[in-house]
Amino acid sequence: ERADKQAREARAAALAAFQEQMSGIVDAAIAGDFSARLEQDLSEPDLAEFARRMNTLLVAVEEAVLDTSRVLNGLSEGDLGVRMAGSYGGVFARLQRDANATGAKLQELVAEIQHTADSIRGSLGTIVAGARALSHRTDSQAAALEETAATMEEMATTVKANAESAASANGLSSETSAMAVEGGGIAAEAV
């Protein structure tokens, strides 16, 4: 009976120590620290198995969280090729799929933006070349118009001078005709 009592007391002490350790690990996990582990070298086989399984759970959660954190950190630093590579199940597999899909979509969007920027750059080159050609043609046409205006002015001056010469010649012709008529009249009188 005494041995049974001592065994019960030892088991109760081991269970209390285990509960205290478990409470500390749960509090750490709630605070985001999944690195703590339960002691597995326990005299109670059931507690030792529970500790082993709990530690396996903590490792799985820690690995998934750290892998997700690594991917998000990589994305935030511009590494759009970073992916979660572990073999996960359940909600961790969904987290992996979603994180990897986010990275792939960001990579696709950046590629599209780069393609669009290249297209715009090419279009701008064409527009600039067209604007330069138009400017050159406009300058050439302006120079041609100036030459045409100068030629028209010269022609107007020449036409005016010709008109004045024609008027003068007409006047001289009229005078000559009048003189000829008058000379013809004098010659007729003299005959």
Please explain how this structure is put together:
With 191 residues, the protein is mainly alpha-helical. It is rod-shaped.
Uncertain spans, ≥5 residues at pLDDT below 50? none
What global shape is seen? rod-shaped
Task: Please compute the radius of gyration using only Cα atoms.
Answer: 54 Å
What is the H/E string? Answer: HHH
Q: What is the quaternary state of this protein?
A: single chain
What proportion of the residues form beta strands (DSSP E)? under 5%
Number of strands: 0
The termini sit apart by 193 Å
Largest sheet: none
Classify the secondary structure makeup into a structural class: mainly alpha
Share of residues in helices: over 70%
Average the pLDDT over all residues and give the rounded result: 89
Q: How large is the count of helical segments?
A: 3
Any key phrases for this structure?
191 residues; single chain; 3 helices; mainly alpha; 85% helix
Could you provide a short overview of the structure?
Helices cover 85% and strands 0% of the residues. The protein has 191 residues and is mainly alpha-helical.
